Amino acid sequence: MPIIKSAKKRVKTANKAAIRNSKSKRTLKTALKSFHSAVTGKSKDAGTKQSKVQSELDKSVKKGIIHKNKAARLKKQASAKAKAAGVKPTAVKKAAPKAAAKKAAAPKKAVAKKPAAKKAPAKKK
């Protein structure tokens, strides 16, 4: 058990990071397993699962959970399996954000400001 206050804090943050990383690894593993089962069973949604796997790999690389070369290798393996099974990747549909819907609904007109009139310099006597 650490004695120094900063070391105690590092233990707490390390535990939080370990929990967060294990959850991310678990979601990645389940995505990979579901993709492999979909490819072997030639499911219709194998293409969406492939894109899900790729996005999960990208997220885990961004978070620093796995190395970028490992993610590239796993993506390549997944795409090779999908190609061998004759599956084409399809994009995962995302819900449109509310802010984008508001922009599309009511675009505002740009109001041009009139330039300020320049005053002539005062004459010296």
What would you note in describing this structure?
- The chain has 125 residues and is mainly α.
- The protein is 64% helix and 0% strand.
- The chain has helices spanning 5-40, 46-63, 68-85, 98-105.
- The longest helix has 36 residues, at 5-40.
- It is flat, with a radius of gyration of 27 Å.
Q: How far from one another are the termini?
A: 86 Å
Quickly give the structural class: mainly alpha
The CATH superfamily of the domain at 5-91 bears the name: Ribosomal protein S20
How many beta-strand segments?
0
- Oligomer category: single chain
Q: What ranges have pLDDT less than 50 throughout 5 or more consecutive residues? A: none
**Looking at CATH, which topology of the domain at 5-91 would you report?**
Methane Monooxygenase Hydroxylase, Chain G, domain 1
Characterize this entry briefly.
The chain is mainly α. The chain has 4 helices and no strands. The chain is flat, with a radius of gyration of 27 Å.
Top keywords for this entry?
mainly alpha, flat
Summarize the helices and strands and which ones pair or pack.
Elements: H1 5-40, H2 46-63, H3 68-85, H4 98-105
